[in-house]
Amino acid sequence: TNSSLKSASISGLTIDSRGNVWCQNFTGQIFRVCGDSLKTMVDATQRAFFNPQYTIDRFGNLWLVPDTTIEVYSHDAKLIYTIQPHFFPLLKNDYFYDIQASKSGDIYLSTSLGYYYRIKPLTKQIESIYANPAPGGTRSSLTPIGDNIFSLTEIGTNRTYYVFEMGTETFHIHEVNRSNTNNSIIYSLAKFGPSESWFTSSEGAVRVDENFVPVPEYPVLFPGEKISSVLKDREGNYWFSSLQNGIFIVPALDVFIY
Predict the structure, then answer these.
(1) Are 42 and 51 in contact (CB under 8 A)?
(2) How buried is 51 (Cβ within 10 angstroms: 0-12 exposed, 13-18 middle, 19+ buried)?
(3) For residue 5, how many other CB atoms are within 10 A of its CB?
(4) 3-class state of residue 87 by DSSP
(5) Model confidence over 29-42: pLDDT tens digits?
(6) How many alpha carbons lie under 13 Å from residue 41 in its C-beta half-sphere?
(7) Most exposed residue of 15, 72, 171, 176, measured as fewest CB within 10 angstroms of its CB?
(8) Sign (positive/negative) of CA torsion 11, 14, 20, 21?
(9) The pLDDT value given to residue 21
(10) CB of 173 closer than 8 Å to CB of 166
(11) Could you give the strand order of the β-sheet that contains 148-155, starting from the edge strand earlier in sequence?
(12) For the stretch 166-175, what's the b/e string if a residue is b when 16 or more beta carbons lie within 10 angstroms of its beta carbon?
């Protein structure tokens, strides 16, 4: 519950190094879960361009991209500094689409035209790591998996998806097999172990294998629900955020009924 909640479309579930669960909504409000309530930590509603994204780095700082400016906050939501768009030479007629902290501490960013950047927080060094050869409308969702950052990227209007795998010295591209996902919109990718990966989509949550192919023996969870993200906490509980109905918490999923 939260009386200041301006939208119930919840996404961006993440857990920080202290075990706190965070999430956001489409209007630009960033929340920390406190018991059964959402505590508003940052409200970028008035300056948000489009569904601003955030991440929590390994020091507990909150990074927010409400438009083309990057805002960095302390754990208790005090503004530390900003990074202005002129430091990103390719960010013309473009804006940041997603932001994600890696395990090593680097900050990765994607843009609406398909460009990718990496920031070294301690030195504030900015690197351009991928330039879309045919800049155009892309939708991306960045996820930390192991030491790398994975970007689930939708290119064009025919819902063609790729997974970009980005490391400190590597960049690989995998095409996504759309079998068993119909024509649903895939929102995000999550991985919780060597053999446990998920796509969240406009038709529920789908378990996929290491090649990002749906696993037929696992049924789609919450069919018909717009599941925007999934998180597995330290106790093994699964948190699913919905663009329609807030957050669902499921204690265990490896339970079969015969």
Answers:
(1) no
(2) middle
(3) 16
(4) helix
(5) 999 999 888 899 99
(6) 27
(7) 171
(8) positive
(9) 92
(10) no
(11) 138-145, 148-155, 160-166, 171-175
(12) beeeeeeeee
DSSP at 76: T
Q: What pLDDT was estimated at residue 68?
A: 86
Is the CB of residue 58 less than 8 Å from the CB of residue 50? Answer: no
> How far apart are the C-alpha atoms of 12 and 23, rounded to whole Å?
5
Q: What Rg value do the Cα atoms of the chain yield, rounded?
A: 17
Q: What is the pLDDT of residues 105-148, one digit of tens each?
A: 999 999 988 889 999 998 889 998 887 766 667 789 999 888 89
Q: How far is CA 149 from CA 25, 116, 129, 146, 213, in A?
A: 22, 11, 12, 8, 19
- Other C-beta atoms closer than 10 Å to the C-beta of 46 total 8
Which tokens is 199 given? 């796509």
In whole angstroms, what is the distance from residue 195 CA to residue 88 CA? 37
pLDDT-wise least confident of 9-13, 50-54, 154-158, 237-241: 154-158
| CA neighbours closer than 13 Å in the CB half-sphere of residue 129 | 25
DSSP per residue over 155-224, as a string? ETTTTEEEEEEE-SS-EEEEEPP-TTSTTPPEEEEEEEETTEEEEEETTEEEEE-TTS-B-TTSPPBSTT
pTM, two decimal places: 0.84
Six-digit token string for 75: 């754990």
